[in-house]
Specification:
seven-stranded antiparallel sheet, Rossmann fold, glutamine--fructose-6-phosphate transaminase (isomerizing), glutamine amidotransferase, aminotransferase, alpha+beta, globular, transferase, GATase_2_dom
Length: about 450
């Protein structure tokens, strides 16, 4: 997992990039770096591989060097290829320095590509898989291709899920972003004189309230106040921006010493938001208006699979237990990274529930696509309603926890569990397993939960 941020505008990109990287630092903080196109038209890169001190040390370095440019890209990293050091930090550049890229994902065939590039005379400066993208794209730039076409052609050689952002000296006012598969998200937004791109919506909130999410197989160009979206064949894509449901203050620590302390303190309010619009504390009723399934469809469900990764999987274990206990439907929790590989029996009578806070977890998206191919109904328990998971699912169950920055999940965990318990009660009620009095009993207990956290 890595954090990406890019900027094109009319003010110095360097402090904007540093602030943007702070917003996505929770996605990786063993390395950090930025590349900007300077006023001379050259690409200049500064990066550090100093573990948790990387971003602070990078900030000091760019101030000391008085780095300046109106267009740039940035990256924070959790290492998957190569040790943590400056050379392995992103962004990576082509040999001639004509292009700089930052990457999130894993290139499964990078050794094969690397060997071919070395045979052609390319010298590598890192141990990462990502560097092959810079050199591949650089060869196309040298042949006269545009930045967008060069990145698309470079990625055509790659096997694996990939997100790339790139700048080129030949097009100094532009940043290109590309998404292939489920390597994480990429989201863009703009104002009249600014355009920004990031791996997470929270990084865009200080700049805009309306964003566009890229889907797999899409590439975007941003310039000062402009966004252009295309497919890999170059066909233009028209997509309206959506308003984000986060706020900048929610992403700040306030008086708390760290984000984890802040998010622990926010758990009671997060539970209340997960209950809002679903439980009626006066009548004791519970409804889930987000679920479009008919009564017959709900009664035909003969199996529920709850899938997720990490904390989401643990919330899913609780959810599966509640669904089987209350709704009397066989239910299990499945690790998303393993689900599709073990060839599970999934059919149209299976209900698959994906739990993913970001809605962009690569393995969970792959598991959802596997289930879709087999005709199962799907729901997604998530925070980000405009995410890829929301687009795959038949319905979404927002947890409404608010942005969670801390790596150790707190309010997202309890909000996911609350939402899954609501789902279990709803399925049980809809199938006639429990009566109104039992529903009211659960609702009364849920009403007490915020004060018990």
């Amino acid at each position: 997992v890595c954090g990406l941020f890019a900027y094109a505008g009319r003010v110095n990109a360097v402090p904007v990039l540093i602030d943007g990287l702070h917003s996505v630092e929770y996605r990786g903080y063993d390395s950090a770096g930025i590349s900007v196109i300077t006023r001379s038209g050259n690409i200049e890169t500064q990066k550090r591989g100093d573990h948790k001190a990387s971003l602070d040390n990078l900030h000091k370095a760019v101030i000391e060097d008085q780095l300046f440019g109106f267009v740039g890209i940035g990256h924070t990293r959790w290492a998957t290829h190569g040790v943590v050091n400056r050379a392995n930090s992103h962004p990576h550049s082509s040999v001639d320095g004509s292009i700089s890229i930052a990457h999130n994902g894993i290139i499964e065939n990078f050794l094969e590509i690397k060997d071919k590039l070395i045979d052609s005379g390319v010298t590598f400066s890192s141990e990462t898989d990502s560097e092959v993208i810079a050199h591949l794209a650089g060869t196309y730039i040298a042949k006269g291709y545009s930045l967008r076409d060069s990145v698309v052609k470079a990625v055509s050689h790659i096997k694996g899920n990939t997100v790339v952002i790139a700048i080129a000296a030949s097009e100094p006012e532009k940043v290109v972003g590309l998404r292939l598969g489920n390597a994480g998200g990429i989201v863009v937004g703009k104002t009249n004189d600014t355009a920004v791109m990031a791996s997470d919506t929270v990084a865009l909130i200080p700049h805009t309230e309306e964003v566009i999410y890229l889907e797999s197989g899409e590439v975007v160009e941003i310039e000062c106040g402009s966004i252009r979206l295309f497919d890999f064949n170059g066909a233009s894509i028209g997509r309206k921006a959506v308003k984000v449901n986060q706020n900048f203050q929610a992403a700040q620590k306030g008086t708390h010493p760290d984000f984890m302390s802040k998010e622990i303190a926010e758990q009671p309010e997060a539970v209340q938001r997960a209950l809002a619009g679903r439980v009626n504390l006066v009548t004791g009723g519970l409804e889930m208006p987000e679920i479009p399934l008919t009564a017959n469809q709900i009664r035909s469900i003969n199996r529920v699979i709850v899938t997720g990764m990490g904390t989401s999987l643990h919330a899913g274990m609780f959810g599966a237990s509640m669904i089987e206990s209350l709704a009397r439907i066989p239910a299990s929790a499945e690790n998303s990274s393993e689900l599709r590989y073990r060839n599970p029996a999934i059919d149209p009578n299976t209900l698959v529930i994906a739990v993913t806070q970001s809605g962009e977890t690569a393995d969970t998206l792959a598991a959802m696509e596997y289930a879709s191919e087999r005709g199962s109904a799907q729901g997604a328990v998530l925070e980000q309603e405009g995410s890829q998971a929301a687009r795959i699912a038949d319905f979404t169950l927002p947890i409404n926890a608010g942005q969670e920055i801390g790596v150790a999940s707190t309010k997202t965990m309890i909000s996911s569990m609350t939402t899954l318990l609501e789902l279990a009660v709803f399925l049980s009620k809809s199938r006639g397993i429990i009566d109104f009095n039992r529903v009211r009993q659960v609702v009364d207990q849920l009403a007490e939960l915020p004060s018990l956290v």
